[in-house]
Each structure stands twice: as structure tokens, then as C-alpha cells.
Write a structure and sequence with these properties.
Shape: elongated
Largest sheet: 5 strands, antiparallel
Structural class: alpha+beta
Distance between the termini: 19 Å
Strand content: 15-25%
Number of strands: 5
Number of domains: 2
Length: about 110
């Protein structure tokens, strides 16, 4: 896959693609989210009739929507609270980047 990282261990192989880690070992194939420091097992979510890339798109859409909701809440709290204009502008730029990423997934 283009734009992916291939990792080879002694007993397993892994590929990281757009925040999703696919690990193949003697135990089978496992799929993890790399969103946090402790990878979350998403194997059951990806066992669908859809292709891997479609499942990654679905995962990324939900991830970006969740992040957009959080940013909107943070902006509202800042506007209603401390009114720090630098922080509000930083959050707005972050929101713009998330919207661009979300739109790239949908096209």
C-alpha cells in the first residue's frame, strides 16, 4: 500500500496505514487503532463484507467527526469562558485542518 509503514518483528509483521495497524503473527491477523498510546483492538469492527480501505475510511470518518465535535465544544467553552483569542484562533485552525482531512476521505 502506498503511504504506509511496514514493520517486521522476529515473530510478526505489521503495516500502519492512516492510523490503522494491521499485525500478522502466528496467532492470526489483528487490527489496531493507533489513535492513543495504547493501541485499541478493532479487529471485530473490520470484519465486514467491505474492503480494508472502505473500513479505514469508515473508521477515519467517525474519528474526524468525533474530533470535530470536541473542537466545537472547546471553542464554545473558550468563547463563553476566558475569551483567549489566540487559543480560539488556534482551535479554529485545528478545526479547518480536520475539515480538510474529513473532506479528503469523502472524495
Amino acid at each position: 500500500m502506498p503511504n504506509s509503514a511496514h514493520i517486521t518483528y522476529k515473530e510478526s509483521e505489521a503495516v500502519i496505514y492512516k492510523g490503522v495497524k494491521v499485525s500478522k503473527s502466528e496467532d492470526g491477523i489483528k487490527i489496531f487503532s493507533t489513535e492513543t498510546d495504547f493501541y485499541t483492538d478493532m479487529t471485530e469492527d473490520f470484519i465486514q463484507s467491505e474492503s480494508f480501505e472502505v473500513c479505514v475510511r469508515i473508521y477515519l470518518k467517525s474519528k474526524y467527526l468525533k474530533q470535530l465535535d470536541n473542537v466545537e465544544r472547546w471553542i464554545q467553552n473558550e468563547v463563553n469562558g476566558q475569551k483567549n483569542h489566540k487559543k480560539i484562533n488556534k482551535l479554529k485552525k485545528f478545526r479547518e485542518r480536520l475539515i480538510i482531512k474529513y473532506n479528503e476521505i469523502n472524495t
